[in-house]
Amino acid sequence: MRFSTALPGAWAGNRRNNPRHRQINPASRPTAMMPGIDRRWEDRSVKRLFRLGFISALAVPVMALAIVSGPANAASTTCSAGVPAPTNSYPGTTVVANNFESGTLAGFTVNTGTTGTATIDNTQAHSGTCAAHLHVTNDPGSLANLVTPLPANSNDVYADAWFNITSAGVAGNDVPYFRFFFDTTRFVDIYRYNNNGQMWLRVTSSTGFTYTKLVSGSIALNAWRHVGMHVIANGAASTVEVWLDGTSIFSSNQINTTATTVTALQLGAEHLRQMGDEYIDDLVIKVGGATAGGPAPGALIPIAPTRFLDTRNTSPVAPDSTVSFQVAGVNGVPANVSAVVFNLTVAEAKSFGFVTAYASGTARPNASNVNFNAGQIVPNLVTVPVGTDGKVTLYNRSSGATQLVADVSGYYLAGTPSTPGAFQPVAPSRFLDTRTAASVGADSTVSFQVGGINGIPADVSAVVFNLTVADAQSFGFITAYASGTARPNASNLNFNTGQIVPNLVTVPVGADGMVTLYNRSAGATQLLADVSGYYLSGTPNTPGSFQAIAPSRFLDTRTATPVGTDSTVSFQVSGVNGIPATVSAVVFNLTVAGAESFGFATAYPSGTARPNASNLNFSTGQIVPNLVVVPVGADGKVTLYNRSSGASQFIADVAGYYLN
């Protein structure tokens, strides 16, 4: 079996730039070399607007000659009304989510002057039928922009949209993407410089302007580009992050600004004649942090499964060697996260061995995440802290090289967790190894202490650990559950005689602080548990917090019909079995059984595009489990795709959910 058949696609890798800042005094440098608008023109125009009374101390900047200001009325343009509003994985409370299919510029104050226009247009669209269109000419009074006032005291803002710049404006000026305002002062923005098409970041501080080149090459006209920006206004220690087409191109939490809050966000320029034609689509603006009631430290932010690492595109990981991959600051993940959730797959192994995942820059722990034999394709979900450099390291403990693939499905927000259901990652640590005592007998249990040891609080709601079966004397399965509670009708790990099989487990902790493992087998087996984190106790009430439940079977196609070749099955999560109607993500153990051919399964939110990722690989006749963390669709369902030339049975045992 070729691995390229069993794992979808390849991801070309991330490019991360670390541009240097340089301080520029506008008076000491020729304006022809300045990235952005001609400062002499800006100074004259701004002073003139002040004299005419168009600039005031209002929170929303409104600047134009012969200005027309106000919300846009419905247009006659035909759009795809009824299309759901855009979403993204950034944290925070949504202020604007607009794909412009309503035919209006809802959520904005629209400012235009003379020949400048702000309209809905159906000649250009990133998705659907329509997009917003800002048009500015060389006319002295031409201006167009869209402004969104933000809630009071907002200081943490994410802006995310698709842009297509079809014509540049006056040489020496620029076409803005996002502009952030503190009262009436623009303190940070990114733009395409008209002279050469480069993308620049501009910051306003008390000492002048700082310009940072973000993209050396030209941003081509007539092409849709995905631009994201994150700003935390914190004076001299502000945070600015920028993503282009899902890749981080700038990240710093030491940006010197004069701002302590973000008053408004603007699309388009507040200065005359500054741009040409710009189309905007699928815009989402979110306000994060405690001021907006957003997710707290330790909250999970689920994302559509995305391939972050595939060594098949470069070179395999050599024996007793490591590979690290970037998590923070790429593909929409913030620069500062505490831990990451990803599906790790081993393929084309030249010898038996295991892989250990750990935070980059830290000591390698005495723990394992996935075990494999020569030639096997073995997946396992991993939850692990992220290093200070934003990376995760994978160690190949084997006498042969192997290929490693990592598909990320979520991350945990950085900070000190304090709210119920928040996650606290720990360096993987071995809490149980029955090889040092006695194996677990047939139809018997073993319990191990979690609460109150190895730095874990005495009162925790749930624990995350990698469970490994070794030296099994017969085939069977293992069920993990809270000590002192009834054993559920669910399984966490299936095995055959002599196999070494790992699987990640998320399970409630008993009142005595222990977890129980049950060996449903005709023979004894050895069990190992490597803990990588825990959830704080209490009733979760903040977005992204976790509510553990006793493992419960939500899907079993063996009671209906198997999932056919290249077909899907969906199952309801929200609003059933005590789960709220609106949840952001779900944790479940997925098991494939009765597979008629080799292949893989992919889990993703119902109603969304199927990602280039896999959750579980299997061979004909195998019974293979793997833990899954995946966002839930708008209809409250999760979809499972069977990429195989034969039918397969799917079983899903839910262990918890994350609040929306």
Which architecture of the domain at 34-73 and 80-292 does the CATH hierarchy give at level 2?
Sandwich
User: Which residues form runs of ≥5 with pLDDT under 50?
Assistant: 1-67, 71-75
Largest sheet: 9 strands, antiparallel
Number of helices: 2
Helical content class: under 10%
Strand order of the largest sheet: 1-12-11-10-9-16-7-4-2
Quaternary organisation? single chain
Mean pLDDT: 84
The dominant shape is elongated
CATH topology of the domain at 34-73 and 80-292: Jelly Rolls
Number of strands: 41
What are the SSEs and their pairings?
Layout: H1 3-6, E1 22-24, H2 39-52, E2 67-70, E3 93-98, E4 109-113, E5 117-121, E6 131-135, E7 143-149, E8 156-167, E9 174-182, E10 185-193, E11 199-205, E12 208-215, E13 225-232, E14 238-244, E15 247-255, E16 264-268, E17 277-287, E18 300-310, E19 321-326, E20 337-347, E21 353-359, E22 370-372, E23 378-385, E24 391-398, E25 403-413, E26 423-433, E27 444-449, E28 460-470, E29 476-482, E30 493-495, E31 501-508, E32 514-521, E33 526-536, E34 546-556, E35 567-572, E36 583-593, E37 599-605, E38 616-618, E39 624-631, E40 637-644, E41 649-659
Antiparallel strand pairs: 1-12, 2-4, 3-17, 4-7, 5-6, 6-17, 7-16, 8-13, 8-17, 9-10, 9-16, 10-11, 11-12, 13-14, 14-15, 18-25, 19-24, 20-23, 20-25, 21-22, 21-24, 26-33, 27-32, 28-31, 28-33, 29-30, 29-32, 34-41, 35-40, 36-39, 36-41, 37-38, 37-40
